[in-house]
Amino acid sequence: MAKIDNLDDVLNILPQQFIEFDLDHYSPTQLNQPLAVWAYKYIACNQEQRRKFKTNINMFFGTTIGAITQMMFCDEIWTYSSNKKENNKKLSMDEAIELLNQEMNNYKPWDEKDQEKYAAIKHLAVDYLRTSYDGWKSLDFQSPAIAERNVTMPLTHVDLLGRIDGEDELKLLEQKCKLPRLGRPKKDGTRTVSTTKLPDTPQIDHARQTAFYHFASGGKRPFLLYCNEKEHKIFDSSNCDLLTADAMQEHLEYYKRQSRLRDRHILNSQGSVKTLLSNMDPDWEHAFYWDLGDEQKAKAQAIYQEAHELS
Asked: Domain check: are 126 and 176 in the same one?
Protein backbone atom coordinates (compact mmCIF):
# COMPACT_ATOMS: atom_id res chain seq x y z
CA MET A 1 0.00 0.00 0.00
CA ALA A 2 1.32 3.45 -0.97
CA LYS A 3 2.44 5.59 1.93
CA ILE A 4 0.32 8.72 2.49
CA ASP A 5 2.48 11.53 3.81
CA ASN A 6 -0.10 14.19 4.65
CA LEU A 7 -3.64 15.41 4.09
CA ASP A 8 -2.57 17.68 1.21
CA ASP A 9 -1.48 14.60 -0.74
CA VAL A 10 -4.80 12.88 -0.05
CA LEU A 11 -6.88 15.85 -1.15
CA ASN A 12 -4.50 16.85 -3.96
CA ILE A 13 -4.31 20.37 -2.51
CA LEU A 14 -1.48 22.61 -3.62
CA PRO A 15 0.72 23.36 -0.57
CA GLN A 16 0.49 26.90 0.74
CA GLN A 17 4.13 27.63 -0.08
CA PHE A 18 3.44 27.14 -3.80
CA ILE A 19 0.45 29.46 -3.58
CA GLU A 20 2.47 32.16 -1.81
CA PHE A 21 5.13 31.95 -4.52
CA ASP A 22 2.43 31.97 -7.24
CA LEU A 23 3.96 28.83 -8.73
CA ASP A 24 1.36 26.60 -10.36
CA HIS A 25 3.55 24.67 -12.81
CA TYR A 26 7.07 23.79 -13.88
CA SER A 27 8.30 23.89 -17.46
CA PRO A 28 11.22 22.24 -19.27
CA THR A 29 12.88 25.67 -19.38
CA GLN A 30 12.61 25.95 -15.60
CA LEU A 31 13.89 22.45 -14.90
CA ASN A 32 16.78 22.76 -17.35
CA GLN A 33 18.19 25.78 -15.50
CA PRO A 34 20.59 25.67 -12.55
CA LEU A 35 18.72 25.66 -9.27
CA ALA A 36 19.83 29.11 -8.09
CA VAL A 37 18.98 30.72 -11.43
CA TRP A 38 15.55 29.11 -11.39
CA ALA A 39 14.95 30.28 -7.81
CA TYR A 40 15.71 33.89 -8.67
CA LYS A 41 13.77 33.97 -11.95
CA TYR A 42 10.67 32.06 -10.89
CA ILE A 43 10.46 32.56 -7.12
CA ALA A 44 12.08 35.93 -6.41
CA CYS A 45 10.69 37.50 -9.59
CA ASN A 46 7.15 37.58 -10.95
CA GLN A 47 6.17 37.46 -14.61
CA GLU A 48 6.17 41.24 -15.00
CA GLN A 49 9.71 41.42 -13.61
CA ARG A 50 10.88 38.60 -15.90
CA ARG A 51 9.70 40.61 -18.89
CA LYS A 52 12.41 43.15 -17.98
CA PHE A 53 15.20 40.60 -18.36
CA LYS A 54 17.60 41.10 -21.21
CA THR A 55 16.58 39.89 -24.64
CA ASN A 56 18.80 39.51 -27.68
CA ILE A 57 18.73 38.92 -31.41
CA ASN A 58 19.48 35.21 -30.95
CA MET A 59 16.25 34.72 -28.98
CA PHE A 60 14.25 36.86 -31.39
CA PHE A 61 15.70 35.13 -34.44
CA GLY A 62 14.78 31.64 -33.30
CA THR A 63 11.31 32.59 -32.08
CA THR A 64 10.47 34.52 -35.24
CA ILE A 65 11.74 31.89 -37.67
CA GLY A 66 9.81 29.22 -35.79
CA ALA A 67 6.56 31.20 -35.63
CA ILE A 68 6.56 32.07 -39.32
CA THR A 69 7.37 28.48 -40.32
CA GLN A 70 4.39 27.35 -38.24
CA MET A 71 2.20 29.74 -40.25
CA MET A 72 3.37 28.01 -43.42
CA PHE A 73 2.51 24.47 -42.29
CA CYS A 74 0.01 24.38 -39.44
CA ASP A 75 -3.79 24.35 -39.60
CA GLU A 76 -4.21 25.41 -35.98
CA ILE A 77 -1.98 27.62 -33.81
CA TRP A 78 -2.53 27.93 -30.08
CA THR A 79 -2.10 31.27 -28.34
CA TYR A 80 -0.40 31.79 -24.98
CA SER A 81 -3.84 31.94 -23.39
CA SER A 82 -4.55 28.46 -24.82
CA ASN A 83 -7.02 29.69 -27.41
CA LYS A 84 -7.04 27.79 -30.69
CA LYS A 85 -6.64 29.96 -33.76
CA GLU A 86 -7.50 28.44 -37.12
CA ASN A 87 -4.89 29.09 -39.81
CA ASN A 88 -7.07 28.73 -42.86
CA LYS A 89 -4.64 30.38 -45.27
CA LYS A 90 -1.12 29.12 -44.84
CA LEU A 91 1.61 31.53 -45.84
CA SER A 92 3.37 31.07 -49.16
CA MET A 93 7.15 31.46 -49.20
CA ASP A 94 6.84 34.97 -50.66
CA GLU A 95 4.32 35.97 -47.97
CA ALA A 96 6.48 34.44 -45.27
CA ILE A 97 9.56 36.33 -46.45
CA GLU A 98 7.62 39.58 -46.53
CA LEU A 99 6.41 39.03 -42.96
CA LEU A 100 9.89 37.99 -41.82
CA ASN A 101 11.45 41.14 -43.25
CA GLN A 102 8.84 43.25 -41.46
CA GLU A 103 9.56 41.53 -38.16
CA MET A 104 13.32 41.85 -38.55
CA ASN A 105 13.01 45.56 -39.40
CA ASN A 106 10.90 46.12 -36.30
CA TYR A 107 13.41 44.49 -33.93
CA LYS A 108 14.81 46.81 -31.25
CA PRO A 109 18.31 45.74 -30.10
CA TRP A 110 18.90 45.60 -26.35
CA ASP A 111 22.27 47.37 -26.38
CA GLU A 112 25.23 48.21 -28.62
CA LYS A 113 26.52 44.65 -28.56
CA ASP A 114 23.12 43.33 -29.61
CA GLN A 115 22.87 46.04 -32.27
CA GLU A 116 26.20 44.91 -33.68
CA LYS A 117 25.10 41.29 -34.04
CA TYR A 118 21.68 42.30 -35.35
CA ALA A 119 23.31 44.36 -38.11
CA ALA A 120 25.68 41.52 -38.96
CA ILE A 121 23.13 38.67 -39.23
CA LYS A 122 19.88 40.38 -40.21
CA HIS A 123 20.44 39.59 -43.89
CA LEU A 124 20.59 35.86 -43.10
CA ALA A 125 17.02 35.64 -41.81
CA VAL A 126 15.57 34.52 -45.14
CA ASP A 127 18.19 31.77 -45.42
CA TYR A 128 17.18 30.50 -41.98
CA LEU A 129 13.53 30.55 -42.99
CA ARG A 130 14.31 28.44 -46.05
CA THR A 131 16.24 25.78 -44.12
CA SER A 132 13.53 25.73 -41.46
CA TYR A 133 10.93 25.27 -44.19
CA ASP A 134 12.93 22.41 -45.72
CA GLY A 135 13.12 20.67 -42.37
CA TRP A 136 9.40 20.91 -41.71
CA LYS A 137 8.57 19.86 -45.27
CA SER A 138 10.74 16.75 -45.03
CA LEU A 139 8.60 15.50 -42.14
CA ASP A 140 5.43 15.62 -44.25
CA PHE A 141 3.00 16.80 -41.57
CA GLN A 142 -0.55 15.62 -42.17
CA SER A 143 -3.64 17.74 -41.61
CA PRO A 144 -4.59 18.82 -39.06
CA ALA A 145 -1.11 20.01 -38.13
CA ILE A 146 -1.05 21.93 -34.84
CA ALA A 147 1.44 24.44 -33.40
CA GLU A 148 2.05 25.59 -29.81
CA ARG A 149 -0.42 23.22 -28.17
CA ASN A 150 -0.11 23.19 -24.39
CA VAL A 151 0.65 19.77 -22.99
CA THR A 152 1.02 18.82 -19.33
CA MET A 153 2.23 15.96 -17.20
CA PRO A 154 1.45 15.59 -13.49
CA LEU A 155 4.33 15.74 -11.04
CA THR A 156 4.20 15.62 -7.23
CA HIS A 157 2.57 18.99 -6.52
CA VAL A 158 2.29 20.87 -9.83
CA ASP A 159 2.23 19.84 -13.49
CA LEU A 160 5.07 20.02 -15.99
CA LEU A 161 3.81 22.23 -18.81
CA GLY A 162 5.15 22.95 -22.28
CA ARG A 163 4.21 23.97 -25.81
CA ILE A 164 4.91 21.74 -28.82
CA ASP A 165 6.37 23.52 -31.87
CA GLY A 166 4.51 21.34 -34.34
CA GLU A 167 2.60 18.05 -34.42
CA ASP A 168 0.14 15.93 -36.29
CA GLU A 169 -1.65 12.77 -35.21
CA LEU A 170 1.47 10.61 -35.13
CA LYS A 171 4.55 12.80 -34.71
CA LEU A 172 5.86 16.00 -33.19
CA LEU A 173 8.68 18.43 -33.83
CA GLU A 174 10.89 20.55 -31.60
CA GLN A 175 12.94 23.18 -33.46
CA LYS A 176 16.18 25.01 -32.63
CA CYS A 177 18.15 27.59 -34.62
CA LYS A 178 21.94 27.74 -34.45
CA LEU A 179 22.90 31.37 -34.97
CA PRO A 180 26.21 32.41 -36.59
CA ARG A 181 29.16 33.73 -34.62
CA LEU A 182 30.63 37.20 -35.07
CA GLY A 183 34.16 37.53 -36.39
CA ARG A 184 36.66 40.28 -35.68
CA PRO A 185 35.77 43.84 -36.73
CA LYS A 186 36.84 44.87 -40.21
CA LYS A 187 38.47 48.20 -41.02
CA ASP A 188 35.08 49.78 -41.74
CA GLY A 189 33.79 48.70 -38.31
CA THR A 190 31.46 45.97 -39.59
CA ARG A 191 31.77 42.36 -38.47
CA THR A 192 32.08 39.18 -40.47
CA VAL A 193 30.01 36.17 -39.46
CA SER A 194 30.84 32.49 -39.48
CA THR A 195 28.37 29.64 -39.70
CA THR A 196 27.73 27.64 -36.54
CA LYS A 197 28.04 23.98 -37.46
CA LEU A 198 24.99 21.92 -36.68
CA PRO A 199 25.62 19.45 -33.84
CA ASP A 200 26.53 15.82 -34.39
CA THR A 201 24.36 15.00 -31.39
CA PRO A 202 21.65 17.15 -29.77
CA GLN A 203 22.23 19.26 -26.70
CA ILE A 204 21.06 17.29 -23.67
CA ASP A 205 18.59 20.02 -22.63
CA HIS A 206 17.00 19.90 -26.07
CA ALA A 207 16.73 16.10 -25.99
CA ARG A 208 15.11 16.24 -22.55
CA GLN A 209 12.59 18.82 -23.69
CA THR A 210 11.74 16.75 -26.76
CA ALA A 211 11.33 13.63 -24.62
CA PHE A 212 8.86 15.42 -22.36
CA TYR A 213 6.73 16.31 -25.40
CA HIS A 214 6.82 12.67 -26.48
CA PHE A 215 5.37 11.49 -23.16
CA ALA A 216 2.98 14.43 -22.68
CA SER A 217 1.56 13.99 -26.18
CA GLY A 218 0.63 10.38 -25.53
CA GLY A 219 3.65 8.82 -27.21
CA LYS A 220 3.91 10.64 -30.52
CA ARG A 221 7.16 10.03 -32.40
CA PRO A 222 9.51 12.93 -31.63
CA PHE A 223 11.81 14.74 -34.02
CA LEU A 224 14.36 17.40 -33.09
CA LEU A 225 15.19 19.87 -35.87
CA TYR A 226 18.28 22.09 -35.97
CA CYS A 227 18.87 24.65 -38.68
CA ASN A 228 21.42 27.28 -39.62
CA GLU A 229 21.59 29.50 -42.68
CA LYS A 230 22.88 26.69 -44.90
CA GLU A 231 21.18 23.46 -43.90
CA HIS A 232 19.00 21.59 -41.47
CA LYS A 233 19.49 18.39 -39.51
CA ILE A 234 16.84 16.21 -37.89
CA PHE A 235 17.39 13.80 -35.01
CA ASP A 236 15.11 10.98 -33.90
CA SER A 237 15.45 7.52 -32.39
CA SER A 238 16.92 6.14 -35.64
CA ASN A 239 20.04 8.33 -35.57
CA CYS A 240 20.36 9.60 -31.99
CA ASP A 241 21.04 7.68 -28.78
CA LEU A 242 19.54 10.56 -26.75
CA LEU A 243 16.11 9.96 -28.31
CA THR A 244 15.76 6.21 -27.90
CA ALA A 245 12.96 4.88 -25.72
CA ASP A 246 15.34 4.15 -22.83
CA ALA A 247 17.06 7.53 -23.10
CA MET A 248 13.77 9.41 -23.14
CA GLN A 249 12.61 7.54 -20.06
CA GLU A 250 15.78 8.67 -18.30
CA HIS A 251 15.15 12.26 -19.44
CA LEU A 252 11.70 12.06 -17.88
CA GLU A 253 13.19 10.72 -14.64
CA TYR A 254 15.64 13.62 -14.67
CA TYR A 255 12.76 16.11 -14.81
CA LYS A 256 11.02 14.29 -11.96
CA ARG A 257 14.18 14.48 -9.85
CA GLN A 258 14.60 18.17 -10.62
CA SER A 259 10.99 18.89 -9.72
CA ARG A 260 11.28 17.02 -6.41
CA LEU A 261 14.44 18.97 -5.58
CA ARG A 262 12.61 22.25 -6.18
CA ASP A 263 9.61 20.98 -4.25
CA ARG A 264 11.77 20.35 -1.19
CA HIS A 265 13.29 23.82 -1.29
CA ILE A 266 9.84 25.39 -1.66
CA LEU A 267 8.32 23.41 1.21
CA ASN A 268 11.31 24.02 3.50
CA SER A 269 11.21 27.75 2.80
CA GLN A 270 7.89 28.15 4.67
CA GLY A 271 6.90 30.66 2.01
CA SER A 272 9.93 32.93 2.53
CA VAL A 273 11.83 33.95 -0.60
CA LYS A 274 14.91 34.87 1.44
CA THR A 275 14.93 31.53 3.21
CA LEU A 276 14.75 29.70 -0.09
CA LEU A 277 17.53 31.79 -1.66
CA SER A 278 19.73 31.44 1.42
CA ASN A 279 20.17 27.75 0.60
CA MET A 280 21.31 28.38 -2.98
CA ASP A 281 24.76 28.98 -4.49
CA PRO A 282 24.20 31.43 -7.37
CA ASP A 283 27.58 30.78 -9.06
CA TRP A 284 27.87 34.18 -10.76
CA GLU A 285 30.57 32.86 -13.08
CA HIS A 286 27.87 31.10 -15.12
CA ALA A 287 27.61 33.97 -17.63
CA PHE A 288 25.05 32.38 -19.93
CA TYR A 289 22.35 31.84 -17.33
CA TRP A 290 22.96 35.15 -15.53
CA ASP A 291 22.93 37.23 -18.71
CA LEU A 292 19.87 39.19 -17.56
CA GLY A 293 21.16 42.70 -18.30
CA ASP A 294 23.44 44.70 -16.02
CA GLU A 295 20.64 46.23 -13.94
CA GLN A 296 18.77 42.97 -13.47
CA LYS A 297 21.92 41.01 -12.62
CA ALA A 298 22.84 43.65 -10.02
CA LYS A 299 19.40 43.23 -8.47
CA ALA A 300 19.85 39.47 -8.37
CA GLN A 301 23.24 39.82 -6.68
CA ALA A 302 21.84 42.21 -4.08
CA ILE A 303 18.90 39.94 -3.28
CA TYR A 304 21.14 36.90 -2.92
CA GLN A 305 23.60 38.79 -0.74
CA GLU A 306 20.81 39.89 1.57
CA ALA A 307 19.44 36.35 1.76
CA HIS A 308 22.84 34.88 2.59
CA GLU A 309 23.50 37.49 5.27
CA LEU A 310 20.32 36.42 7.05
CA SER A 311 21.14 32.72 6.96
From this structure: yes
